[in-house]
Amino acid sequence: MEMIDTSSPFISGVVFSGGEPTLQKEALTELSRYAKGRGLAVGIQTNGLFPDTLEALIKENLVDKVAIDYKTQWEGFSGLHGGYSTIPAGNYERKLQRSITICKKASREDELPEFEIVLTVFYENAEYIRKISAGIGNTPLVLQQGEHKIPRIRETDPVMTNGEYISKRRTLQEYHPPLTLAELKSIADELGKTVRIRTREIGEITYESDWRRRDARKRKR
Question: What is the 8-class DSSP label of residue 78?
Answer without folding.
Answer: S
